[in-house]
Amino acid sequence: MTLDEAKGTLAACREEIDGIDRRLVALLNERSRVVERIGAVKANMDMPVYEPKREDMVYANIMAANGGPIPDDSVRRIFERIIDEMRTLQRTRMGAK
Amino acid sequence: MTLDEAKGTLAACREEIDGIDRRLVALLNERSRVVERIGAVKANMDMPVYEPKREDMVYANIMAANGGPIPDDSVRRIFERIIDEMRTLQRTRMGAK
């Protein structure tokens, strides 16, 4: 592989990553909108916001979907961050109302 | 809204979230495979693994793609976790070779 070939491959890979990242951002926001709908229903019905059993199901679904190469514990840490950020957003929105 | 209606809406929302999560997991693994290809090219060419300028571009792309409702700083924290986990995976793989 020449240096020029390496640079060309890297550029193509980076374009691919940028495209994947844009799709990830869109999906994260889509998820956030559904979480908001759930929050609204729960607030309306005076239902508890945090349900540990449902959270277990979320992680079970994620682990079952993971075919690698990312290890399960890495995927879990990524989703812990995602879920935590969405919970914070919910709290901010509900506090603002 | 009756309790039954609320439960029905919640069930539908949760099914939607599970579907989104499965797509997120698939995309994260797709991203990871591209990162691996980059790592292989760099190892082959003795190029530096960490390039701060490229990282800035990754975040710029993500921020530009973010239309909300998730705030920019939340999206950034989520991607910091994603990028960190992928870097760890790269290090483990390269160490194993």
What can you see in these coordinates?
Two copies of one chain form a homodimer. Chain A has about 100 residues and is mostly helical. The first copy, chain A, has a single domain, classed as Chorismate Mutase Domain, subunit A, CATH 1.20.59.10. Chain A is about 85% helix and about 0% strand. Chain A contains three helices and no strands. Chain A is elongated and about 65 Å long. Chain A starts with a helix and ends with a helix. Chains A and B meet through helix 1, helix 2 and helix 3 of A and helix 1, helix 2 and helix 3 of B.
Which secondary structure elements does this structure contain, and how are they paired or packed?
The structure is a homodimer of 97-residue chains.
Chain A: H1 3-45, H2 52-65, H3 72-96
Which keywords apply here?
homodimer; 97 residues; mainly alpha; Chorismate Mutase Domain, subunit A; 3 helices
Sum up the overall morphology of chain A in one term.
Answer: elongated
Q: How much is the average pLDDT of chain A? A: 93
What is the assembly state of the chains in this entry? Answer: homodimer
Number of domains of chain A: 1
Number of helices of chain A: 3
Largest sheet of chain A: none
Q: Indicate the percent of residues in helices of chain A.
A: over 70%
Q: Which structural class matches the secondary elements of chain A? A: mainly alpha
Radius of gyration of chain A: 19 Å
Task: Report the count of strand segments of chain A.
Answer: 0
Instruction: Summarize the helix and strand pattern of chain A as letters.
Output: HHH
CATH fold title of chain A:
Chorismate Mutase Domain, subunit A
CATH architecture of chain A: Up-down Bundle
End-to-end separation of chain A in angstroms reads 59 Å
Broad CATH class of chain A: Mainly Alpha
Greatest contact between two chains: A-B, 57 and 57 residues
Proportion of residues in extended strands of chain A:
under 5%
CATH superfamily of chain A: Chorismate mutase
